[in-house]
Amino acid sequence: MPGPPRAIPERTLRVLPTRDRVAELLRERVRAQGVALALGVIDLRSLEDRLIRAARLDPIGTTEARLVVSAVAPDAARGTTLAELATQPGFAESFLELWDTLRRAGIDRVGFERLAAQLSRRPDSLSGRRFTALSRIASAYEARLHSRGARDGVGARLLLPRAIAELGRARLASLVDGARVIEVERNAELPVVRARMWEALARAGLAITIEVPVLPAGDDVVAPELVGALELLRRNLVEEAPSVDLRPMPLLHDDAKLAAAGLIPFVPPSRGRALVSATVRNELELIDAEDERAALRGVCAAIRELLHEGVAPHRVTIAVPRLGLARHRVLAALDAAELPCEETRGQPVLQAAPLRLTIALIDAAERDLPREALAGVLESAYVARRDTTLLLSALREAGSRDNRGIGHLGRLRVHADKLARQPPAPFGAPTPTEPGRAQQRRSEQAARYHQLADRWEHLFAKLRLRRMATLREHLDAVFAALRALGIPRRCLALPELGDGSRERRLERDAVAALARDRAALEALEAAGHGLDDAASAVGVADAAVSLTDFRAHLEAALAGVRERPAGVSGAGIAVRDLVDLARSPSDYVFVIHAVEGELPGPGRVLPFLDDEDRQALDRAAGRPVLGAPTAADAGTFALACAGVRERLVLAAHRHDADGREVMRSRYFAALAAALGHDHPPRSLAAGVVPSCAQSSTRGQLLTRMSMLAREGRPLAGLAELPGRGELERALSWAAGHAHDLARASVRLPDHSRALALARLDFSWSGQREAAPGLVWQGSATSLEDYAACPFRFFAQRILRVRAPASIRDELDAAEQGSVRHLVLAEVMQALRDQGLTPLEGGDRTGHENRLAREVCEAVLDRWQQHERTGPLPLWYLHRDLVVRDLSRTLEGERRFAIEAWEPGEFEIGFGVPAEDGSGAIDGTPLAILDRDGARRFELVGRVDRIDYRGDGRELEGLIIDYKSGRVSDRLRFDQIARTQLQLPLYAAWLATRRPDLGDADAAYVSLRDGERSQASLLDLCLSSVELDGLLALDPNERRDLRARAASEQDQPQQVGPPDIAAGALDLPEIGQRNLADNVWALLGGVAEGRFDVRPHDPGRACRYCSFGPVCRVERGDELDEADA
């Protein structure tokens, strides 16, 4: 006889806190069973959304809500303490944050008005006046929504309990997947509005069971913040949901092995020591790092150790109290350590480069396109305009600061017309400069400026955004400006790369970057359309808003949009906020940033309310409405520790990322005290290169071991290490390069070297049809650049990297040098034409000074009329400085008048285009033959000035080269023909050009004070045998010099420079020195593609180098302190 029928178990729906928790549960089922179905499981937000849609409440979005607040707040707050604040762009978002928080706590519009009236009974109450203003805005906001039959998200949840009661049983059963029992997993927060929803479901016939964390029995002395956090959860359910069953979940239970760690900071020290069990002592680790970087290294090293032990990455979680502030640094540390990570929250899309550029464009338009802000937009890599630098330079020259009045282009056209006009004739002594040819150049420049203004006219019309317009008009204008700038087109274009493996990696990264940029632009377009639709939905589509308010609305619409999280989905180390960890358990947890101010933090700051306002609100409501500011962090920390299954690591640091001193968290200190002296925190010292035990990456470990090998210290256990051969080779290389660790080799492969030499027009073989035997035409400056640092030569003359042009108003260093150079050249020419050179002083001093002052003023007047001067006050100050420097220079000339040097020629070019713009070539280049005489290097350039003295066989020549800085110790014996090539090359050119000269000398003259280099080139050559034959250019004579030097040596060795010299460091420091041989050695380095990062003297070469951002050598300023 069959028995009684078996009872069918009631279907249960399990509600989890977040979608990530649901995904984690399903992955656990897949790993355990091989397959998992999402039946009987749902996250809390999805259940709420399902019920809201079924009740047809249809809430508006946050964008619509912000627009409504922006529309009603100014009028509603008029005459209150918030009248001015309500007109600010960010007010709507702040108000909605406060209003949503109050409504989640169960305070609706009527209740808020009643509380505000109660608080305002005291006329001198600041809180009462503030709450009155807020209640008026809230009432106006709710009235506007009601008039349009709309409601926002929190408003829909307030109406949800009543709507659930109106749903039929069959409809409700389908919404909960036919379940009769709903089990709700513990959550870190349970507001009143959600408790009312559970009560409505319980009254509809469903059995609701909610897990509620409670303190263990017997712990009566617990910190108030933790008691308050847990009591708030329980009280909301008891008062608002009496029909719901509560399932107490003690923080200390058998499955929570490390829950005691979350309770210790909130109990007395004696109780805390009693809670430390053997499990807590073994599975809890504290890291006390000197700085944040050391803490991240220690955590990464500990995680790598776990992975080596066989722990799967998905079982490890890194929790940060406030992830958004430290997200980039944490992900960078994991990436450097090559640890797979999974981030639950992606980067805000607003941080993407195209969107940052969009906001910068709107910000610049708000301020009438100031030149600095305009440069930040136009110089972006996303703006494909080749003449941007020319435009900014022209605007700077025209003195245009912003787009007000006639605008940037109007001022540029005015400046072009000014250039095209005939310059006034200089007064005083006539000077043979300008008129026809210079005026032609100015006219051509003016025409170029007019063409430049015409080319940019269309774009500037798009960049001028209207100050007041509707949202749709603002959006159309911004999108039109972005299209005019070419940003969407640039985000679709891949760069042209080669076919090598490195190029393929670059192409892969470029594709990923373009995908991010396209996603950002799509998010911008979606946000723009959403903003337009939201304005239409709430009836403000035709209302004009300011450009500032539009930018605030657009930023707020994009703030909630995030990129796809980086990392490996479901199989990497989880990077989460500590709040998310409180809702989802994990096996191995690393809590970092355990410092005061972050754990615990200052609590959730609500706009417009301070601590007194919170207390006043609680007193008026008769219950805690918002809870204590630190209660949330206390509950979060306790629940997070209770969810740790295997191991917990808490990391604190003493200094933050900016070097500021911080305090360890009180939670960290309490745990350290409870563990006792026999289990102290692990200390990690700060350092740029970590120790071997703290190294978390291969590069860090190899760097540390290389430092040990360089110091000659033995490495214990090296024989037992895997890959010993490769490691030994690396360490041997490090020891061999110990003297030059700061340098980096750049040797181009064959195809890249061919492209580089083609860009230089450099033919090492000398096989040219037009000029047989010619290897290269170059200047002395280019050779000095290669000698001082080959990489600087590579960046400037092959890659043609240009430092950003200055956008400052005052004259830059080049302009200051140019105006002084022009003044001194014309003054000395005028003095010579009047027969006043060499300057004698004495009775002629007054006449010399008057003539010099007249010529100087004429030059400065012409400069002021035709060149860029910047603001007049700065220019007047600089004019006075130029006159002062000229007086000092003339005094310096008088001091050297006793040597009887007579200025003879000015601005003499050789192998360079003539200054008249005719296209003719001035002079003949200096040909320097190689050792065999078959090939030649041609030196081209322009000499500032040549002085002569004597006559006949006693005739001598002196080349003067002007410098803006000090020159007293500039010419150095040990650097002649090594890094200082200009003066020897100019002297060799003069000796070749004027074979009638008995001697050809060269010296520097300062444009600041007229001082000359302490010793001229000839003085140094005559003082040392090493410089005998320095200027010899004939190959046979140079061969004899090398043979003579070799015969004087005791042991046979190479004489002279090597065939290939990668900079001056490869040139010999002692021995016979010849200019031509050194030049050809440097040319050999160029021919071999040797462009190493090898500054000869970092203290001097790197101080003013503009290629620091792409160079891997530390600035050497400190090396030059003694010389300074």
From TrEMBL:
Bias-annotated ranges (Pro residues): 423-433
Catalytic activity, EC: 3.1.-.-
Domain (PD-(D/E)XK endonuclease-like) ranges: 779-1112
Pfam annotation, one family: PDDEXK_1
Signal peptide extent: none
Region (Disordered), start-end ranges: 421-444
A GO molecular-function descriptor: helicase activity
Keywords recorded for this protein, A-Z: ATP-binding, Helicase, Hydrolase, Nucleotide-binding
UniProt protein name: ATP-dependent helicase/deoxyribonuclease subunit B
Native source organism of the sequence: Enhygromyxa salina
Biological classification of the source: Bacteria, Pseudomonadati, Myxococcota, Polyangia, Nannocystales
